[in-house]
Specification:
This protein has 2 helices and no strands. By secondary structure, it is an all-alpha fold.
Length: 72
């Protein structure tokens, strides 16, 4: 299959597609009624921010890759 090299790459593709569809459905049908970041309770807002930061840390690429124009 030409779009992935490993099974983890395929999982990231499906996770990205699922996230995009979930955000689109939420905006279409719920219109800020399920928004964690705009909730009245500060504990819910803080939990949402922590969840987003943890997701970025788990999925992000932090391998310190080589600068693209290193030998240019």
């Amino acid at each position: 299959f030409p779009f992935y090299e490993t099974i983890s790459g395929l999982m990231f593709i499906f996770f990205g597609i699922f996230a995009l569809v979930a955000v689109d459905l939420k905006r279409e049908f719920f219109n800020n009624s399920l928004s964690i970041l705009y909730n009245r309770h500060p504990a819910v807002r803080i939990a949402g921010i922590v969840l987003i930061v943890l997701t970025i840390l788990l999925i992000g690429v932090f391998d310190g890759g080589q600068f693209i124009y290193f030998q240019f």
